[in-house]
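Fig. S4 source data, part A: sequence.
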Amino acid sequence: MNAPPQSPLLIVLTTLPDPAAAQALAATLIEDGLAACVNVLAPCTSVYRWQGKIETATETPLLIKTTAAVYPALEAAIGARHPYELPEIVAVPVERGLPAYLDWVRTNATPSLPPPARSDPSAE
């Protein structure tokens, strides 16, 4: 019997205006099961053309590991929570990787996962 097809993996790139906004979005994506891992990178300088002018801004990039099956919900979640009028949301396919890591991404980028257990000191 053949194994069911596996959803291709993606690395999704986006940038946020500051580390706090990037950390908040990263946490939400993980909590909602839309990503297995989000790397919040060091702030960088972005130079781009916007509304006919060349702009320069300090931004905090995110590298988001997810699956193609989850991507539509991930894109919608980023768009709904992103402070920019036109956020950068770019998905790059993963061609190869350590098989055990790729399986881990597929297992953990699942919106139907139950929320992680939280310690509640008042329950003791």
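Fig. S4 source data, part B ends here. The helical segments are 19-31, 71-81, 99-108.
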